[in-house]
Write a structure and sequence with these properties.
Radius of gyration of chain B: 17 Å
Number of helices of chain B: 7
CATH architecture of chain A: Beta Barrel
Shape of chain A: globular
CATH class of the largest domain in chain B: Mainly Beta
Strand content of chain B: 25-35%
Number of strands of chain A: 6
Helix content of chain A: 25-40%
Structural class of chain A: alpha+beta
Order of helices and strands of chain A: HEEHHEEHEEH
Oligomer: heterodimer
CATH class of chain A: Mainly Beta
Distance between the termini of chain B: 30 Å
Distance between the termini of chain A: 66 Å
Radius of gyration of chain A: 17 Å
Strand content of chain A: 25-35%
Strand order of the largest sheet of chain A: 2-3-4-6-5
CATH topology of chain A: OB fold (Dihydrolipoamide Acetyltransferase, E2P)
Largest sheet of chain A: 5 strands, mixed, barrel
Helix content of chain B: 25-40%
Shape of chain B: globular
Order of helices and strands of chain B: HHEHEEEHEEEHHH
Chain lengths: 144, 171
């Protein structure tokens, strides 16, 4: 049985140290790296929806109760249903503060009827706003 | 064309005259007018079993569970920059008729709620309650320009934008 145990350990280790480019298993939960987004503007693409160009609009929408999401680095959008143990997913002040930031979140993912959801237990890393899109897109949606 | 879409989806909904209780186009990608019956559920409860009374009292995103068991998460109501929880909360656990738009883009179908009524024959109402509730909470006239442009006056928004700037970078 011992070789199987070694193989299992190596496989487990390979998952643990896998580069973070989307959602990866991490001891029963997953880590998702990506940009905090306004789900409506991103998914309908009614305007340029990412980075500094869209920051103000994303704050407006989060304050208005539009679901906040995270666009993972692998391109999967997740709706955040809970953040750091707080199940207030409507107008959570902590999520207003994180809009547009590139972060690493740890929690549980769910997929249901084509929509991805994340229950984020922990903010692992906050890289701040790194997506400087205003130079190309101005301020969305009104230019001011 | 994108500017037109933005205008239609963010502003016309708040001002159109209500001729019929039926969805109107916002020019969204792969847009589909729809009307369906569904149960209003707490999305977190539905997915994880983490349930609280009254669907979280307005603090949790609410979903629509249709007769086939499909969970539809409304992302939008018809108030500019506002979501649908405020429109659905009083129907927690009840069947409603939801009227609005499906839009499919980036491989995901989303739903915008424009009208809602309790099933089977409740009174239709437009999904525009956010601004009125915001006005009441902030002590302003619900018909004022301040209430219509609530997003430019909301204390939480002013705090974040005042601190970090419109770009979020402190500029």
């Amino acid at each position: 049985m011992k070789p199987y145990g070694v193989v299992a350990a190596l496989l487990a280790a390979s998952v643990w140290v896998a580069p973070l480019s989307g959602a990866h298993a991490a001891g029963g939960s997953v880590r998702v790296a990506g940009e905090i987004i306004d789900s409506w503007c991103y998914l309908t693409e009614i305007m340029y929806p990412l980075g500094t160009a869209h920051h103000q609009c994303a704050v407006w929408c989060a304050a208005g109760g539009v679901p906040v999401g995270i666009l993972s680095d692998d391109g999967t959008p997740y709706i955040l249903l809970s953040f750091q143990g707080n199940a207030q997913s409507v107008t959570d002040p902590a999520l207003l503060d994180l809009q547009t930031h590139h972060v690493v979140l740890e929690g549980q993912t769910f997929e249901r009827d084509g929509m991805h959801y994340l229950v984020a237990d922990r903010l692992v890393e906050d890289h701040g706003i790194i997506n400087m899109t205003h130079e190309d897109y101005g301020i969305q949606p009104f230019g001011e | 064309m994108k500017t037109l879409f933005v205008f239609l989806s963010l502003f016309l909904p708040a001002t159109w005259s209500l001729g019929a209780f039926a969805a109107e186009s916002w020019g969204l990608p792969e847009e589909e007018k729809t009307r369906f019956e569904a149960k209003v559920v707490d999305a977190l409860c539905e997915l994880t079993g983490n349930c609280v009374e009254q669907c979280g009292g307005g603090k949790r995103q609410l979903g629509l569970l249709n007769g086939e068991g499909k969970l539809i998460l409304p992302l939008k109501n018809v108030t500019p920059f506002a979501g649908a929880t405020v429109e659905l909360l009083e129907f927690c656990g009840k069947q409603v008729i939801a009227d609005g738009l499906f839009s499919t883009n980036r491989g995901v179908q989303v739903f915008a709620l424009q009208f809602v009524r309790e099933a089977p024959d409740g009174e239709w109402r437009r999904a525009n309650r956010f601004a009125g509730q915001w006005a009441e909470a902030n002590g302003v006239d619900a018909k004022s320009k301040t209430a219509q442009q609530w997003f430019r006056h909301d204390p939480a928004v002013l705090k974040v934008i005042g601190r970090d700037g419109k770009l979020g970078t402190g500029q």
